[in-house]
C-alpha cells in the first residue's frame, strides 16, 4: 500500500535543484569551473518544466476519474 501518491512535478523539481547543487559543489571543490550565470536558467527552466509536468499530471488524473478508492473505512475522526 502506498503512503502517498506519486507526484512527478516534485520529482523533476528535486532533480533539477540537486543538479544545480552538484554543479556548484563541484565548483567549490575545484573539480570544475561553473560560471555564475548557470544557476538562473537551470533553476528557472527546471521550475517551468516541473510546473508543466505537474499540470499534465493533474489533467491526466482528473480525466481518469476520482483515482484510487480505499477498501477499508476512512480515518476515525470521532475520537
From TrEMBL:
<keyword id="KW-0812">Transmembrane</keyword>
<feature type="transmembrane region" description="Helical">
    <location>
        <begin position="35"/>
        <end position="58"/>
    </location>
</feature>
<keyword id="KW-0472">Membrane</keyword>
<protein>
    <recommendedName>
        <fullName>Integral membrane protein</fullName>
    </recommendedName>
</protein>
<keyword id="KW-1133">Transmembrane helix</keyword>
Amino acid at each position: 500500500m502506498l503512503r502517498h501518491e506519486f507526484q512527478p512535478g516534485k520529482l523533476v523539481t528535486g532533480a533539477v535543484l540537486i543538479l544545480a547543487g552538484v554543479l556548484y559543489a563541484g565548483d567549490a571543490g575545484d573539480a570544475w569551473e561553473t560560471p555564475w550565470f548557470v544557476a538562473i536558467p537551470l533553476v528557472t527552466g527546471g521550475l517551468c518544466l516541473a510546473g508543466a509536468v505537474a499540470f499534465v499530471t493533474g489533467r491526466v488524473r482528473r480525466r481518469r476519474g476520482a483515482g484510487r478508492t480505499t477498501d477499508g473505512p476512512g480515518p476515525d475522526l470521532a475520537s
